[in-house]
Batch of 2 targets.
Target 1
Amino acid sequence: MTKKQKKMLYRILAAAVLFLAAKLIPLPAPVSAALYFAAYLTVGCDILRKAWKGICNRQVFDENFLMAVATVGAIALALYERSGDYSEAVAVMLFYQIGELFQSYAVGKSRRSITALMDIRPDYANIERDGKLEQVDPDDVAVGTVITVQPGEKVPIDGVVEDGVSTLNTAALTGESLPRDVSAGDEIISGCINMTGVLKVHTTKAFGESTVSKILELMENSSSHKSRSESFISRFAKVYTPAVCYSALALAILPPLALTVSGADADWGTWVYRALTFLVISCPCALVISIPLSFFAGLGGAGKEGVLIKGSNYLEALSQTKTVVFDKTGTLTQGVFEVSAVHHSPMAQEKLLEYAALAECASSHPISKSLQKAAGGALDRSRVTDIQEHSGRGVTAVVDGVTVAAGNGKLMEELGVAWHECHSVGTIVHIAVNGEYAGHIVISDVEKPHSRDAIAALKAAGVTKTVMLTGDIQKVADYVARDLGVDEVRAELLPADKVARVEELLKAEPEGAKLAFVGDGINDAPVLSRADIGIAMGAMGSDAAIEAADVVLMDDDPMKIAKAIKISRKCIRIVHENIVFSLGVKLLCLLLVALGFANMWMGIFADVGVMVLAVLNAIRALRVHDL
């Protein structure tokens, strides 16, 4: 509990003691009245002060004004009737402040969930100078600097491990509790906690461009993007508050005036009391507090699960998603090419892979890297001579005195080598040794472990259509789409073609339905911007994609897309529940007050009780782990 909350709690307890003493102990009337007034001012002085400031600033109609008018009016009515009982005015202010304290605590709990996420910001970076570690501001570390991360410290800047072996806790970034092992050559992102060994990290980004800075910026800006529901509540409150004030005034004046004109007993005190009770009940604080709190809690809950949503408007749009469009490479697949098969080889597979890797050793192409990896890593390039690149077809080289050709079917035909067609899906590298066909190697992009489950989870979550758009060849795209269960696929697309295809899908969407696009590359940025909701892979995705997206998945796990949709739908469901419940109870109580069936105590329940219940309901948006 904060100092401000503790101070309010003490004031409430002091006012409650004074109130109970005045109510329960038989005291002389002046002493009892003094205790009531002391209790009222103890608990209500800040409300009266805020109401007065609102009047001075010409911003009259808010909940502080309503509470001040209602309670001061109740005191004035008790003075007029000389009843000596000021309990209703004090009780209304007391219970209202209890509700405000409860709401403040609930907001604080929601804010702490985001603060825990924001705690990933590192305070310093270690740079070794003259054999000693010196702590410097991460902003002052230049790209390419080698920093030291000791056990228990946060990784301050994105980079590549240059030396050391350790285990990283990535829970604050990804929501994933399983630690990640890293060693030399592995990329690591800022915000992770180094758990075991000392790491030397070669920084690849400035601190302002690193992952942790991007996350903090996203979270700090998320509250500025309001949803339609929040905007509706703001507009509603501006109209509703003056309307109920004028209605209360009319209730206090018009009925008794009509009775007076007709010659009946007007009983002005009864109608003024009803009008004051009407004001207490009408306070819209349950809506004004609980709706933004629901969205705030939803954003915080999603952040804890490794899903960063840039604003409550995107959270609301996610709940209406019916079509999800995917890029393939790096989104549904890992974007890492691996040797998946070796066919029709009369020699040992290891020997064929070695020949192919050595022939391709001068290339930095991903295909070459995958061959080198399959052959066992580092190779002795001195064994290779006379490397010749055949543009668009492959390479030829002399390996250990043997002529080796590695490439596509066109290269084999050019060399007069009879080759075998391969029916596997992937990139096919045909190998010829000394002019004789030696077999072919199949290299494929690897599907992400959860991609198939992610598509199934989306359909279970109510997404009616999944689409894959890719620049890959049709054969490969069809195979991946069929294997993962994607409904529709379009292949061999340029970035502009992807935008055009998304435009077509948007036009075909039913009214009220939203389309989300999921991608990771620089070429996906235009499509991410054009879709109703752009979802980017945050761990390995490009900066342009993350900047253009509305939602960022911190661990690149496509399973989190269905999770984000479920979180958004739960949040919107809670918002709608609070709107219906709050307005329903208030309208019913207002009617009962106007007809004389409700008193000030019912007003207390309708105002404070409804607010407490709505806030309790809003806090449920934080509980998203089991969705």
Target 2
Amino acid sequence: MSNLKKLFNPGSIAVVGASQESGKVGNVITKNLLELGYTGKVFFVNPKHDKIYDQRSYKSLGEIAEKIDLAIIVLPAKIVVPVIRESAGRVKNFVVISAGFSETDEEGREREKELEALAVEKELNILGPNCLGFIIPKLNLNASFAGGMPKAGNVSFVSQSGALAVAIMDIARKENIKFSNIISVGNKMRIDEAEILEYLSQDEGTKVIGMYLEGIKNGPKFIRVAQKVSRIKPIIIIKAGKTEKAQQAISSHTGALAGSDDIMDAVFEKTGVLRAENLADLFALIELVSNTQAPKTNQVAVVTNAGGPGVLTTDAFGGKEIKLGDPNDGIKNKLREFLPAESSVANPIDLLGDAMEDRYAQALDVLDSMEGLGALVCVLTPQDQTPVSKIADRIIAFRDKTDKLVATIFIGGERVERSVAKLKENGIPNFSFPDLAVRAINEYYAWNRRRTADQSGAESAEPIVVDASRQENIAAIIGKAREEKRGALSFPEAQKIMAMYGIKTPSVTDIGAGDSLPEGIGFPAVMKVDSDKVLHKTDKQGVILNIKNREELEKAYAQMEDNFPGERFIIQPMLAIKTELIAGIKIDGIFGPIVVYGLGGIYTEVFKMVDFLVSPGSIQEVKASLAQGKLKFLFEKTRGQAPYDIEGVSKILFGLSLLAREAAEIKELDINPLLVYNDGKEAVAVDVKIII
């Protein structure tokens, strides 16, 4: 962290590839360092020139006798590695602006590997390559090829796209958003989003961290760091790539259900990251968080001078954690003292279209005393008689004396433009539309609630210990299957593994290829093919249900042998079905093992009513996911139906998460169906598929 601090707070900078020629990247960076107020020492390196802007130009970094905290490299890609190698003994921080690395072709990928190996060997901090650079407004330091200097403030913005960072800065000027850091990470070769998050968590000037990401380099590290940082500061991420092309065919239902963006949602939920759905959402969240404190409660009061926008604002609260508070009779009576008889004193409070600034001010003062209130939202439309500027002044004055979150929704164009600018200059976030405002306040409240809960949960959670004995037993089972060149375990093998984690399975009769049917089979029964070549049994007619007697069993066996010659089969009791779930493990390429669960049965992939657990740290975390997720209706009493066994299902899902930690050889695991009950019976994993 001390090294990164020196990178982003350098006392001296060398630009390798500096230029006086207009239009070149090296020229933009040179002028930024000379003209925007940076007070540190600046050195220029370019062997083709003796001077650049009347300042000495050195032939190489080695010629500079003074200490260099940071070197900015603006050179053709093919000479970047040699130049850094020559100076690695005395310079430890680099920004590589140059493109031509892993984002191009195989030659570029090899070049980046060489640069990364050098960085590891010499313990270098390298931002990039293929990046815009960075900007620290409080230092008047623009170490990038973006023009200008944003206003200094408390927002750090990190972008995987340099072009988007430039666009964000341009929009921010209009929106009066002020920055502590703007950092372009480029290819993230050495310094990725996790390192930047950790650094910014310790930056006193940063209150909120915004990010644009196209991918995450190291999933487990990101989870660890983001979870820690989000307990200190809000992290707002806009993640590109929601609609990826269809994934390659996956062997199990579990894999097919787990799209990468679904997993990203689960990761953000686990880590407390606020996900922006689009750029408008990103700016709304950043503006709100950078200017206000999180609401202490979920109760919100809305005042409006127009009925329609008030209704739209009310609609926006649907499905949110924040709610429109209910004023008591005392508050309503105080409002009636000065409001017209036609006004509504329910929430939202309708001040009517002729409302002047005094009516807004009085209403806000009364509502400020409303018990349990966390936020106040002022809605305004610029009607003919509306004194927009004076109302804005009263809202600003009110904000200065309240401890509640104050936001505005001034809906309009030219008639509200100056007043909106005034509100923003005074730190009051304004939203053009009700849904943006309500979503942003809701996300901010939810972040604060989760942070408090996560901190107490982290203190009480016991560390998860890997069971070495289980690992050895599982390794032996999987080793035998591999010796036999099987891609999946048999059901009896899977059954043994399930038992290690307390997951109940039905009794089973195992029938080898060509074996006779045993006596003593109970009815009704189910017969299934048990083969690593037949993973989707229902699709292949590999399951025969509700076999009622010996005659039907013999007929079923003959049919199975005809359909699947040379394969093994199993017979299980036909269990009563109440509700079918699916549960399983998918290995994600970025984040590792993910536990997937949802409604099961043959319609699993049709309804896709599934949720995801990313490395749960406790059974309490699993239970919370069940209670708040898509299946929460199962665990609540509804229309006389008893709730299902949330404790039992939690134990099963947590057991799967332990299995994922302890058996890296498992590629996918699928329990479908997992039969669950609400009448005291224990959940049963009827079909278990483990792919190795």
